[in-house]
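User: Sequence recovery, please. Input:
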């Protein structure tokens, strides 16, 4: 099975965690797109979705799935999202699609985080994938220097020759060369730097379940 087929497999497998009659939290990315497509097949059984990005909102609405503002919903039973990396404890690196801030917000309002990923995302130590950090633009140089002091190489994510602008009007820094051995401490530390909107380590908002697409089928990891 190729990577695309594995994503389809886990996107469909995630339907088992959707609670009938409720609103589901929906992440962002190519794996989640497969989940959204699968969700459309049971759209009459759910109330709708809270979305973590403009891109997912567009896809959900195009398929006839109502999208609620996160402020209209007190708690979600489940949030389903992909990851750029996940470790054996359910800690993740996210933000490859630049949606990390809204993803962390929706994850925080959900009782359970179900990560859907192909097996290439499972790692021993987080940090091989360049770590996305959403920042207030005026703080970007200082934050990049702080990552250099930690041993990383940081750069501003570009799109069409200019800094990429997130759904929240901010920029993304991608940091290579980090080995994040204590994700909880790392997330706590970097989140406190002035100008950091969201760091792409999801350790406080970790996954409780990972549906991992493998050549032998979907493996369920519980953390
Ligand atoms: C978007 C994300 C995605 O979940 C992550 O980048 C994985 O995406 P994909 O499923 O396309 O590999 O964090 O901000």
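Assistant: Recovered sequence (223 residues):
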């Amino acid at each position: 099975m190729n990577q695309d087929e594995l994503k389809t497999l886990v996107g469909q497998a995630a339907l088992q965690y959707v609670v009938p009659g409720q609103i589901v939290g929906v992440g962002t990315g190519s794996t989640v797109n497969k989940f959204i497509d699968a969700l459309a097949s049971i759209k009459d059984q759910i109330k709708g979705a809270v979305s973590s990005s403009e891109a997912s909102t567009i896809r959900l609405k195009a398929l006839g799935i109502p999208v609620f503002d996160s402020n209209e919903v007190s708690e979600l039973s489940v949030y389903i999202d992909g990851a750029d990396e996940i470790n054996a404890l359910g800690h993740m690196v996210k933000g490859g699609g630049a949606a990390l801030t809204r993803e962390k917000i929706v994850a925080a309002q959900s009782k359970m985080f179900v990560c859907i990923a192909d097996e290439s995302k499972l790692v021993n130590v987080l940090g091989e994938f360049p770590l996305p950090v959403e920042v207030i633009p005026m703080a970007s140089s200082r934050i990049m220097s702080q990552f250099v002091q930690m041993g990383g190489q940081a750069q501003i994510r570009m799109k069409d020759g200019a800094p990429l602008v997130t759904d929240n009007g901010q920029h993304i820094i991608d940091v290579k060369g980090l080995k994040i051995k204590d994700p909880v401490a790392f997330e706590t530390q970097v989140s406190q730097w002035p100008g950091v909107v969201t760091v792409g380590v999801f350790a406080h908002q970790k996954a409780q379940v990972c549906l991992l697409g493998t050549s032998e089928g979907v493996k369920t990891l519980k953390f």
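The two ends are 26 Å apart (CA to CA).
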